[in-house]
Amino acid sequence: MNISIIGTGYVGLVTGTCFSDLGFQVTCLDLDRQKIDGLKKGVIPIYEPGLENLVQKNARAKRLFFSTDTKNTVKDSDVVFIAVGTPPVLSKVGAADLSYVFDAAKDIAESLEGYTVIVTKSTVPVDTAKKLEAIIRDVNPIVEFDVVSNPEFLREGSAIEDFMRPDRVVVGCRTERAEKVMRTLYQPLFQLETPIVFTSPESSELIKYAANSFLATKITFINQIADLCEKCDANVNDVALGIGLDTRIGKKFLNAGPGYGGSCFPKDTLALAATARDFDVPL
Fold it and tell me: What is the DSSP string of 94-127?
């Protein structure tokens, strides 16, 4: 299958490169011509161990391409991934700015010719798939397409390993036709016995936020236990070991420290709470 990836940021570039390494023909798209020109020369705009070599290997093998031509690339694609940024909205606490996602959907809709699966890799709130379906249908009412949610679970510094040997792959789709395409796409990982969870787009969208928020909760929990340990002369590292060996709890993310941070946990916990408020469910 031919795959196109809209967005050559962290998620888009890693995803596109790894799919090309699995044998698919992939074109990574971006409006930033300078970034695309750099990628064509092998200049990687982010640091991720092993990514530069993988990009160069698959570019030489004619499986990985870079372009600013959305129209001609998308019309020849079987699957189009949206991997653009969803930064927080400053005017509404926790809300995600979906303008880049919606702009990408409009560009895709104008370029579609045959049946295509449009996949959101960007971290987006519940009901985004429905909104994308409406946008695409409004722009191009006669084209056949499906919108699928396929959240990423990549850790910076381990992204290639996380893609190639993930704990799980989550796919949210509504039709058997889209599911068949996604099964073909992830068949190389399925052969490695990777669990693939097929569910609705709404559940898939929520899984991403719930996973990150749960991990943030574990970090917050052990930090509060650390505060108690300091007052009662207990050792938080021993406590973390003692509870982490319980398989129901697990030892990961139980290292006491300054708190959770990074590019995902702060915004995703706020976004989950904002989503809950939108649905009148206090979290």
Answer: T-B--HHHHHHHHHHHHH--S-EEEEE-S---TT
The per-residue pLDDT for range 239-267, each reduced to its tens digit, is 999 999 999 999 999 999 999 988 889 99
| Residues β-bridged to residue 120 | 82, 149
Query: 43 and 111: one domain?
Result: yes
| Sign of the torsion angle spanned by Cα atoms 56, 57, 62, 65 | negative
Q: List the domain range (segments joined by +) for residue 84.
A: 2-165
Q: How far apart are CA 112 and CA 143, in angstroms?
A: 7
One domain, residues 68 and 127: yes
Identify the active-site residue in 28, 173, 229, 264: 264
Catalytic, 173? Answer no
Nearest to 72 by CA among 39, 29, 35, 103: 29
